[in-house]
Amino acid sequence: MATKKRSLSCDNGEQDGRLLAHKQLKADGKRHVAALILARGGSKGIPQKNIKTLAGIPLLGWVLRAAADSDVFDSIWVSTDHDEIEKVAKSWGAKVHRRSPEVSKDSSTSLETIREFLEQRKEVEVVCNIQATSPCLHPSHLKDALKMITEERFDSVFSVVRRHHFRWKEVKKGSGESTTPLNLNPAKRPRRQDWDGELCENGSFYFTTREQVEKDLLQGGKRAYYEMKPEYSVDIDVDIDWPVAEQRVLRYGYFGQATPEVVRLMFCNVSGCLTDGRILLSASGEEMVSINARDTSGICMLQNEGVEVVLLTSDLDPVPQSLADSLAKRTGRKVMQVGKEPLDDLKPIVEQKKLDWKDVAYMGNDKRDVKCLNLAGMSAVPKDAPVVAINAAKYTCQNCGGMGAIREFAEHILLQKEKAKAQMSSTASTVSTCNPEKLQN
């Protein structure tokens, strides 16, 4: 992915501060670098925005996953004043900084909250403020930007995006004042392709040293920007942004280190996923379950793409053998019964097929599924699953169990597979163009 990085001029009188910052190196030449996501509970535009589900994942989860997989942070923190946000943060492996009431007001600034965090975490020497509302952030963005701090000796690096907007001076309504252009000559309007545009902060992340924060600066000292492509620059402030962001994330979001194209096997619970969990009784005492045709078509879609699907029933919530046989015939898939801990029964199958768990997709809907949901390369739960399962899954469906959730997850798996193929094709093309000898060898 091509990105552009440029340095900005240094503020007068800040040279000494930069030298001090570079003297803070540890014996091994490294400084403690922390990621900090500010997630206050009192969102005005979208209630509970930071933990609202976006494309199957809590908004906060997108940036936490990117931060963790970048493998450049010594610690990853979420600063919050809200209990539910704390639970979600911890479920994604982050540490939690409970901010004080003084920096939890509507009028509180990001800089004030970051300063409070650093006052309590003396070991942190470089902090990256990552915005929770930037769900298309990728690990590579953070890796490349941090190199500008650690290798090129910048004091602050922030993300920008290039915009091609012509700006005009705002005038008060009814004043009769004529507006004037701010960044163009109307007599010589440039074509888009003839104009480089302007760099605007996209708010995705801000790296800075402790010394700059102590000077009340988030972008101080020797500054640089990190240019991100427009497709990765997504911000969410009001409700109308949400569906647009969701579509962007499905196409350009970071879905983890597991390569979706290698998913070969999917385990899926019958009760609560393929069905709504109910067993219907007829007047004659016959037992029945209801299956959504969209879900069975989703299973067929996966089968056509070479993904083996195994349906699971539990001895804790048994499906009568006659129903299991009917399900197997109807779906064309094997139905097997698992015990109280499904992982114990499924591990031998994965090993027998000589697969890794990153090659496995798992769909569950209860507490007993948590270990499998965590272990599988791709995992999902229906919308109506309990919180403990939702927190463990990598994807939360918009549909409930028995109402199209399996079809939705199947489409998600295949979409990620297509994305991975496109990325591999792009990478191969780049290598072929830039390094032809490598391919010949």
From TrEMBL:
MF-aspect GO terms: N-acylneuraminate cytidylyltransferase activity
Family annotation (Pfam families): CTP_transf_3 (PF02348)
EC number: 2.7.7.43
Enzyme type, top EC level: transferase
KW Transit peptide (keyword) present: no
Annotated GO biological process: N-acetylneuraminate metabolic process
Name of this protein: N-acylneuraminate cytidylyltransferase
